[in-house]
């Protein structure tokens, strides 16, 4: 999931440092601690981030994240 988010951000000339907020939906609340460790290791922190126990749309996923990134006006987007 983090690799996918990083790739989507990179496609717009952004990275985790441009994320201003995120929501992660967890199928199993007991996974929150492990997920927080992985998020920390990846540098996915420093902004408001809610972990929410919720149904996930695909049965093969344990979590999914929505992230909002902001790029400054005049910052060139990736080609």
Describe this structure in words.
The protein has 2 helices and 3 strands. The chain is an alpha+beta fold. The chain has a single domain (2-69), classed as 2-Layer Sandwich (60s Ribosomal Protein L30, Chain: A). Strands 2-1-3 form a 3-stranded mixed β-sheet, with no helix packed on it. Strand 1 (19-26), helix 2 and strand 2 (49-53) form a beta-alpha-beta unit. The protein is elongated and about 40 Å long. It starts with a helix and ends in a 10-residue tail after the last strand.
How many helices? The count is 2
**How much β-strand is present in the residues?**
25-35%
User: What is the top-level CATH class?
Assistant: Alpha Beta
Distance between the termini: 23 Å
What would you call the shape?
elongated
Strand order of the largest sheet: 2-1-3
């Amino acid at each position: 999931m983090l690799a996918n988010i990083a790739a989507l951000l990179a496609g717009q000339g952004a990275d985790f440092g441009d994320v201003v907020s995120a929501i992660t939906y967890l199928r199993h609340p007991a996974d929150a601690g492990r997920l927080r460790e992985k998020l920390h290791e990846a540098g996915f922190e420093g902004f408001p981030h809610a972990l929410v126990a919720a149904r996930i749309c695909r049965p093969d996923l344990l979590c999914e994240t929505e992230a909002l990134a902001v790029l400054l006006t005049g910052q060139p987007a990736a080609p």
